[in-house]
Amino acid sequence: MSRSIKVLVAKLGLDGHDRGALVLCRAFRDAGMEVIYSGLFATPDRVAQMAEDEDVDAVAMSLLNGAHNTLFPRVVSKIKEKNLNDVLVVGGGVIPQADHKGLMESGVDGVFGPGTPLSNIIEHIENGVSKLRKI
């Protein structure tokens, strides 16, 4: 890739459990990505604004409180409202398998749960961003 991938790691809603998000931040950084962390309690509007302001290639959302079916699609919607069509959006956390299809249909490009190897997430982001850069 011509420049490193810039990824926004976002902790949405009233979920104060950030250990997984911080592990992702370090893994992305160690993989050569530039990482921006939203901090705790980000709103969909804030995440979309940060994605635009920071000119990110990807948004990696983390949520453990069960609000993924509401908040993940809202982030996708807010990003689309800003015409950020070249931003890959993925999500992770404790998300039942039954919810994956709906999230993907809403525009989330990948859904990752506990135990997913970090290398799988990194590879998914690298491949997705590479495809979007070619468009």
Number of helices: 5
What is the total tally of β strands? 5
Backbone CA Rg = 13 Å
How many domains make up the coordinates?
1
Going by CATH, the homologous superfamily would be Cobalamin-binding domain
Helix and strand pattern: EHEHEHEHEH
Give the CATH topology. Rossmann fold
- Named at the architecture level, the CATH assignment is 3-Layer(aba) Sandwich
Structural class: alpha/beta
Describe the structure.
This protein is an alpha/beta fold and 135 residues long. It has one domain: Cobalamin-binding domain (Rossmann fold, 3-Layer(aba) Sandwich), CATH 3.40.50.280. 47% of the residues lie in helices and 19% in strands. A five-stranded parallel beta sheet has the order 2-1-3-4-5, with helices on both faces. Helix 2 packs across helix 3.
